[in-house]
């Protein structure tokens, strides 16, 4: 069993939700990064202030070492997180902020010339986090021009704590935002499907007795217009089929009404007084003719019903249409000669795949129809030809008075008679061409009627048989 | 010739019995499937006419039982169900022919006679004769009262059919099927025209008239016919 596709709402929610989550995560990462950068910059600025102060002190002439140390101690005043060691290149300590131990850092860090974001680095000592740098300072007058090594650092525990809290806070906010976004998406999708539910409600109102209801394509969102239009088209077709079906039932009732009326009237009149045997016989014969007509109509209608339900089975095989036409010409020969109607057939032997009996019946009905409406001395011509690479075209033409183009397609309708006065003159029930059409359709073909050069031409297109033996 | 008709529809049964009796057959009528089943298996018949739709034991079961008992009696089905599967089923079960309701009685009669003839050894005559009409089958020639009559191939086939089934009413549909292989009703008076032309050749200049029209039913060739 094929799995049912995932629901549209879920599909949209998942895809839109994923995008929103990614966007929020990236955004959070950027915020975190920039705050981090901001703190680094802040630390660098603080360290720079200390370095600046130390450098300033070094270029001032100092009276003695004690004074120098006092001055240096004051360099970190106001920067209570900052601390520094000032040493000679020989390792001799000039000054170290009391209580600080920066020796570990001095060993792991490289020496820079200037202080900026890239020359600072972090390290950890006794549970505290520091950021600092090792700088080579040109010696000032205070140290008689010797270059000095300055190790400067600041405690960043406070910043790290803040960042830690901020990260948790950010994660929480992102999570909540994601949930809200996903829910909002789902709600929007659900709301977006409202027109679908509305249409579905409208469709539900359509019953077989309310087939005229149509969806209004202009009242639905643009995306659903096509759906509404094709749904309406489908309804058109169904309504048409339904209409045809109910017309058909009405036609049957109507067509049966006249023979039944005839029979009934005739029988009632016959019984109204005593008649001689010859008269009774005459009435019974007349009745027999009516019965025969009704039986034939019922038979034809059953055939049509079966054709419509695709129930026409039977043996299929290669059928040579040229041969079939010849056989039918032989059958109609006497009738044609008597009416001085010429029959001719031109074209190659064309083969179709089909049921010989049914195709013969279709051709017979077409020929009978053509001959019936052909005046004495005229000609019924059958043309066979290949049409394209895979179709066979059969045309049956006979001279005829002009038929209005709008009547032409109706010729294949049941009980349709081009000339209403021909009704019940031994012309049959008006089902002959309908049977032609149903047989041709059952074979995957097409029928049409055209009026060309004072001739009515019935065109039948059938799929050609390829693996023909002939 | 003894026939069994199994038909539950009262009117149809009565008229079948009457019509077949008047056509010279001895007819037993069973009005239920059970009676029909019993009669078919116990009495010898030359042919059985079975309605398919019976309230108790349907026609299919009767023909099945009959064939299971190795009986070769020809069976003709009457059915109102006109679907290919039904027909195939009936023939598969061993029925010999079927007729779809509503049918013409003349058609039924013609089919019954065809089925009854099937069992007989065919007589291979070179010649057929009715009154002074003589058919030379191998040479496909006809003559009447010693006069050679020119017939087309189909006219000869038509005449041969009428002569072979002399005295039987042949419905138009049967003629179309036997002579032209047209197994459907063509909505035309083709057969009437063909008969008319044949008549002009073999009857117009001779007495007695041989081909007779049976109004509403078909045509018959006989020496003494009503017309």
From TrEMBL, chain A:
UniProt keyword annotations, A-Z: ATP-binding, Cell inner membrane, Cell membrane, Kinase, Membrane, Nucleotide-binding, Phosphoprotein, Transferase, Transmembrane, Transmembrane helix, Two-component regulatory system
Pfam family, one: HAMP
SMART domains the record matches: HAMP, HATPase_c, HisKA
Transmembrane region(s): 12-31, 168-190
One MF annotation (Gene Ontology) recorded for this entry: protein histidine kinase activity
PROSITE patterns xref list: HAMP, HIS_KIN
Top EC group: transferase
Subcellular location: Cell inner membrane
Function in brief: Member of a two-component regulatory system.
Descriptive protein name: Sensor protein
TrEMBL record, chain B:
Pfam families named among the record's database cross-references: Response_reg, Trans_reg_C
The keyword Nucleus is assigned to this record: no
Claim: S-adenosyl-L-methionine is one of the keywords in the record: no
Chain positions with 4-aspartylphosphate modification: 51
UniProt-listed SUPFAM superfamilies: C-terminal effector domain of the bipartite response regulators, CheY-like
Keywords (A to Z) from UniProt: DNA-binding, Phosphoprotein, Transcription, Transcription regulation, Two-component regulatory system
Domain spans labelled Response regulatory: 2-116
Residue ranges flagged as DNA-binding region: 125-223
Record InterPro entries: CheY-like_superfamily, CusR-like, OmpR/PhoB-type_DNA-bd, Sig_transdc_resp-reg_C-effctor, Sig_transdc_resp-reg_receiver, WalR-like, WH-like_DNA-bd_sf
Gene3D superfamilies: 3.40.50.2300, 6.10.250.690, Winged helix-like DNA-binding domain superfamily/Winged helix DNA-binding domain
OmpR/PhoB-type domain mapped to chain residues: 125-223
PANTHER family, A to Z: REGULATOR OF RPOS, TRANSCRIPTIONAL REGULATORY PROTEIN CUSR-RELATED
Name of the molecule in the record: Heavy metal response regulator transcription factor
């Amino acid at each position: 069993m094929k799995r049912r596709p995932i629901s549209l709402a879920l599909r949209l929610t998942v895809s839109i939700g994923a995008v929103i989550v990614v966007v929020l995560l990236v955004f959070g990462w950027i915020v975190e990064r920039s705050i981090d950068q901001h703190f680094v910059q802040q630390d660098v600025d603080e360290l720079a202030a200390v370095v600046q102060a130390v450098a300033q002190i070094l270029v001032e002439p100092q009276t003695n070492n004690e004074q120098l140390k006092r001055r240096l101690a004051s360099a970190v005043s106001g920067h209570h997180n900052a601390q520094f060691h000032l040493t000679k290149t020989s390792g001799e300590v000039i000054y170290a902020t009391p209580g600080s131990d920066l020796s570990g850092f001095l060993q792991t860090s490289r020496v820079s010339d200037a202080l900026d974001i890239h020359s600072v680095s972090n390290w950890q000592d006794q549970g505290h986090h520091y950021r600092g740098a090792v700088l080579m300072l040109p010696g000032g007058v205070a140290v008689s021009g010797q270059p000095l090594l300055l190790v400067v650092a600041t405690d960043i525990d406070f910043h790290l704590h803040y960042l830690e809290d901020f990260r948790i806070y950010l994660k929480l906010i992102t999570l909540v935002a994601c949930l809200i976004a996903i829910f909002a998406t789902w709600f929007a999708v659900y709301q977006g499907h409202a027109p679908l539910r509305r249409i579905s409600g409208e469709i539900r109102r359509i019953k077989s007795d309310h087939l005229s209801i149509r969806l209004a394509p202009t009242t639905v969102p643009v995306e659903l217009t096509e759906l509404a239009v094709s749904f309406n088209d489908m309804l058109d077709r169904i309504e048409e089929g339904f209409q045809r079906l109910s017309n058909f039932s009405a036609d049957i009732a109507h067509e049966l009404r006249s023979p039944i009326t005839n029979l009934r009237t005739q029988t009632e009149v016959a019984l109204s007084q005593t008649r001689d045997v010859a008269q009774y016989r005459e009435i019974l014969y007349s009745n027999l003719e009516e019965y025969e007509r009704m039986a034939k109509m019922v038979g034809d209608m059953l055939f049509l019903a079966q054709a419509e339900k695709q129930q026409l089975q039977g043996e299929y095989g290669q059928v040579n249409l040229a041969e079939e036409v010849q056989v039918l010409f032989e059958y109609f020969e006497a009738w044609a000669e008597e009416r001085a109607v010429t029959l001719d057939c031109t074209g190659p032997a064309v083969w179709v795949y089909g049921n010989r009996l049914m195709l013969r019946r279709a051709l017979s009905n077409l020929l009978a129809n053509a001959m019936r409406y052909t005046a004495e001395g005229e000609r019924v011509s059958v043309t066979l030809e290949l049409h394209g690479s895979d179709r066979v075209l059969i045309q049956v033409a006979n001279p005829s008075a002009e038929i209005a183009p709008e009547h032409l397609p109706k010729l294949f309708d049941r009980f349709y008679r081009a000339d209403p006065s021909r009704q019940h003159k031994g012309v049959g029930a008006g089902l002959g061409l309908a049977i032609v059409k149903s047989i041709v359709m059952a074979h995957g073909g097409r029928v049409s009627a055209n009026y060309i050069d004072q001739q009515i031409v019935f065109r039948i297109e059938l799929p050609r048989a390829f693996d023909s033996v002939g | 010739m003894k026939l069994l008709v199994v038909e539950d529809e009262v009117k149809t049964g009565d008229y079948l019995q009457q019509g077949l009796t008047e056509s010279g057959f001895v007819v037993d009528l069973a009005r239920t499937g059970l009676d029909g089943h019993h009669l078919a298996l116990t009495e010898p018949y030359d042919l059985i006419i079975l309605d398919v739709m019976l309230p108790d034991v349907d026609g299919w079961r009767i023909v099945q039982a009959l064939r299971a008992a190795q009986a070769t009696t020809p069976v003709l089905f009457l059915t109102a169900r006109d679907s290919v599967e039904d027909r195939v089923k009936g023939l598969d079960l061993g029925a010999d022919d079927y007729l779809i309701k509503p049918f013409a009685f003349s058609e039924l009669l013609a089919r019954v006679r065809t089925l009854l003839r099937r069992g007989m050894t065919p007589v291979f005559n070179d010649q057929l004769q009715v009154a002074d009409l003589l058919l030379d089958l191998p040479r496909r020639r006809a003559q009447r009262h010693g006069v050679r009559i020119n017939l087309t191939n189909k006219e000869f086939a038509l005449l041969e059919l009428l002569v072979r089934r002399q005295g039987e009413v042949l419905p138009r549909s049967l003629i179309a099927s036997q002579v032209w292989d047209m197994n459907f009703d063509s909505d035309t008076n083709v057969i009437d025209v063909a008969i008319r032309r044949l008549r002009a050749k073999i009857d117009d200049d001779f007495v007695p008239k041989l081909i007779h029209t049976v109004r509403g039913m078909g045509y018959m060739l006989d020496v003494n016919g009503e017309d």
